[in-house]
Amino acid sequence: MKALVVASLSPDLSGMALADLPMPQRAAGEVLVKVRAASLNFPDLLMTRGEYQFKPEPPFVSGLEFAGEVVAADPDSGFTPGDQVYGGNKTGAFAEYAVVPARALTRMPHGIGFPAAAALGAAYGTAYTGLVEIGGLQAGQWVLIHGASGGVGLAAVELAKRLGAHVIATTGSPSKVEALRRVSDADAVILAQGRFRDAVADLTGGALCDLVYDPVGGDVFDESTRCVAFGGKLLVIGFAGGRIAEISTNIPLIKGFSVVGVRAGEYARRFPERGKAIREAVLTLAADGRLNPHIDRVLPLSRWREAFEAMDRREIVGKVVLEPGT
Length: 326
Hints:
α4 (151-162) links the parallel β9 and β10 (166-171). The protein is built from 11 helices and 16 strands. It has 326 residues and is of the alpha/beta class. It is 29% helix and 27% strand. The two termini are 12 Å apart. Strands 3, 5, 6, 7, 8, 15 and 16 form a 7-stranded mixed β-sheet that branches. Strands 11-10-9-12-13-14 form a 6-stranded parallel β-sheet, with helices on both faces. A 3-stranded antiparallel β-sheet has the order 2-1-4, with no helix packed on it. The protein has 2 domains: 2-120 and 293-323, Quinone Oxidoreductase, Chain A, domain 1 (Alpha-Beta Complex); 123-264, Quinone Oxidoreductase, Chain A, domain 1, CATH 3.90.180. It comes from Novosphingobium aquiterrae. Its EC number is 1.-.-.-. InterPro entries: ADH-like_C (IPR013149), ADH-like_N (IPR013154), ER (IPR020843), GroES-like_sf (IPR011032), NAD(P)-bd_dom_sf (IPR036291), Zn-ADH-like_protein (IPR051397). Residues 11-322 form the Enoyl reductase (ER) domain.
């Protein structure tokens, strides 16, 4: 089979290439899936450099999540050949076939294609874990979502709106402001540059935000500490901006807010019943047509470099999907 292999870590993707590999062999409890679509996530890019918290030893097949058709599974797994599923693992998605534990797969909702299904798991799972499971999101609250033009941020915007929140979406790129207004239904879109706290205060009537969802870090995190309402939560999702911020503990003390880390995958592994409930909640919303991942572009696996470089240049609005069969 064709697969995208990280043979060595490098800062410029030079350690990656398409390769011919043997078909993966599944063990008991695992499912063999023919991959129809696999979505690119920022951790996929970081793992090519050894900069993500999970550091697989090269060589490994890149890719966190996919959608496809079951080829083989245990009789008691709940899956049969031909079932359309989505899910994934820490690696292995950018290939024509993948093997994952049965618990890591979910049946695709009716009416959704493979590219959209491939974009459901990580982004919406992270959004639901952060905003609802950990953040306790309630209808009518104000939510500030950073990095909203990326897959994780845009999913959080959509989920928060569907659950009745008032959403302020941010982007660090002036060129993406209008694009984000077109593809999202956020109440407002602002630039996360400089002292954006004033814009947040104006939009909320001075109330500031009950939840801040931050996959960016760095200067954005620093200014976000000024945007959280008393008793609110600043959710640390990641560090796409590059710098891991620090905070003096007197700031959350005086302002009465919490800084909470969100590792959605680890949360689901440590609390499998909660992880299952989160997947089911996302599935229900998608099946009802309330979640519709925005796909920036769909490319054949042979054009993987174009996809990774576009993500590295922050060109993507939403998700980019690779199709191994093309």
